[in-house]
Amino acid sequence: MKKMMILGLFVLASFGIQAQGYQIGDQAKDFKLKNVNGKQVSLADYKDAKGFIVIFTCNHCPYSVAYEDRIIETDQKYKAKGYPVIAINPNDPELYPVDSYDNMIIRAKEKSFTFPYLFDETQEIYKRFGATKTPHVFILSNKAGKYTVEYKGAIDNNYKDASQASSHYIDDAVEALLQGKKPELTETKAIGCGIKTKG
Known about the structure:
This protein is α+β, with helices and mostly antiparallel strands and 199 residues long. It has helices at 2-20, 62-78, 101-111, 125-129, 169-178, and strands at residues 27-28, 32-35, 40-42, 51-56, 85-89, 117-119, 133-134, 136-143, 146-153, 193-194.
């Protein structure tokens, strides 16, 4: 009985760690997911990247839609500086058909996405990261293929109107990293729609 209790506690502890996802300073594992152009994309493909702005987002969520232009601007601003955006759709399309892979292709063309838009078909990657919302940002630094989580949370502090945002979390974090510093603010609360999963 005692052994069973200990085993149960171990399982619960392990599940808690897994559900929690990456914390600041953790090493993120690479992944390989299908892009809207049909090709597989991984972090290792970006040989010269200093880091990545990984954003879990989707087609249907009004918060994600409100941020689309800002995500494009962020990619255009930082890709040339070594921090490209990698967008990932974590939703189950059976629950939200508008988030299907085919609709991702349509949305990427409609908005002229400048970044890869990847499909987390098995829903393993968002769980690994610990993403809970769309959008949810994870900024990684890259040192010889070691991807360290430097910031996670929101894009800025005004999802309704970009012009009214007074704190620009992605910009502040990436600019600090480009200067060889750690971001002053490493974690904020992600605001958006809950990720759609069967379980």
